[in-house]
Amino acid sequence: MRKVFACCLVLAAVVFVVAGCGSKKESEKGDTDQAQTKATQAACDGSALTATTKLPPNFPTVAQATYTKESTEGPTDITEGFFMGSVKDAHSAYTSALGRNGYQVTHDELDEHDSEVNWEGHGRSGQVAIREQCGEGDKVYLHVTNRPA
Predict the structure, then answer these.
(1) How far is CA 138 from CA 82, 101, 134, in A?
(2) What pTM does this model have?
(3) Residue 76: its pLDDT value, please?
(4) Cα–Cα–Cα angle for 111, 115, 121, nearest 5°?
(5) CB 96 within 8 A of CB 102
(6) DSSP letters of 43-56?
(7) How far is Cα 73 from Cα 34, in angstroms, rounded to an integer?
(8) Does position 121 have pLDDT exceeding 70, yes or no?
(9) How are strands ordered across the β-sheet holding 139-148?
(10) Residues 16-51: b if buried by 16+ CB within 10 A, e if exposed
(11) From the CA atom positions of the chain, what is the Rg in Å?
(12) How far, in Å, CA of 57 to CA of 146, rounded?
């Protein structure tokens, strides 16, 4: 009887420890999601960049797009901002404009709430990611990556 009771205690302790580890991971994930949401919202609410962007030469100017943030991660430049319109409108605008400006669209995908347009040209390659993350129906988040080809 004591062996059964001891085994139950050990099993309960293991379950408690495992459950605690899972909760920690979930809270860490929540912190990461919250940080990403704040960064995205900052790009959606920011003012237009006044300096020249790090986008490559002849990168298309899309009238409804406003770039508000830039950063560099290794060889990759990241330009963020927003597009006034829908995901579908932004996808169409970038797909068309890239082709007109000497870039090749290597892959594109359009879903209801997000889109990706992969491109290369002028010695660079990257992606325009479009997401419904600005919190407004007529304003979508832009995330443009750009790296050496």
Answers:
(1) 10, 26, 9
(2) 0.76
(3) 97
(4) 140
(5) no
(6) HHHPPPP-SPPSPP
(7) 21
(8) yes
(9) 65-73, 76-84, 139-148, 124-136, 114-121, 104-110
(10) eeeeeeeeeeeeeeeeeeeeeeeebeebbeeeebee
(11) 22
(12) 11
